[in-house]
Amino acid sequence: MMIETEAGAHTDAEEENYFISMTDMMVGVLFIFIIMLMSFALNFQKQADRQEDKISVAEEVGRKLEALEQRVSQRLAEIREAASMRTQLLHDLRDALSREGLDVKIDEANGVLRLSEDAILFPINNADLIGRARENVGKVARVLARILPVYSPCLNAEPDTCPSRTRSFVETVFIEGHTDSTGIDANNWDLSTKRAVNTFRELIVASPDLRKILNRRGSEILSVSGYASTRGIDSERNLLAYSRNRRIDLRFVMEVENEIGLREIQALVGGMKTEIAQLSRPKAP
To answer: Is the pTM for the entire model greater than 0.90?
Structure first.
């Protein structure tokens, strides 16, 4: 009887130990499961935070892209305004010269007022302004002196002639000399430049105030250049074509606030590149 009791007690102890081992195992498994669940939750939270960060960055990129688009549109509008002002300037000059009895041509696309052979005719292989050509340059000078200040920044002009526009104005007026295609090319380059220089000098003699018209940098607005026969307007090889190509063009270059506008656009693009780099860069743990 005593033996049976001990045996039963021994069996109960084994069952109790087995139960304790199973309990410990279940607790251990549950603990591991809890750790795994916590790890999953933390990873999920990190992924969620990372996604939120990416969404935030993407939204910021979108805002900067919209700002960039608006700035580019503004720049294009300013360029169109400058082109429109230049066209108006060409028409004003043509109409004023027409009232002076001069028939001139305008090229709106390139901003050119063409003093053709009807206004200024140079003799063959000659850069001198003779007779009627000199008189006509005087008329051109007086018209320029009257109209150009309206389209200039007026750094050295009378206050009451200063334009209200602040973004678009004339930056340079190129007095361009041209030759026909006859003669030696090297000589034609020198000849075309002399024609431009002589025209410039006669303009200043007729209207000295032209030298007071400055661009925004404070430089005189008038400049000279020569192109030999490289920019002919009549490709025919006859006397009429040659006389048409021996001419003076006035090319008007408008200035818009290019540097400031481009810096603003560059800053926006740089900010967008930084934001996009953050999207592709893994977040530090």
So the answer is: no
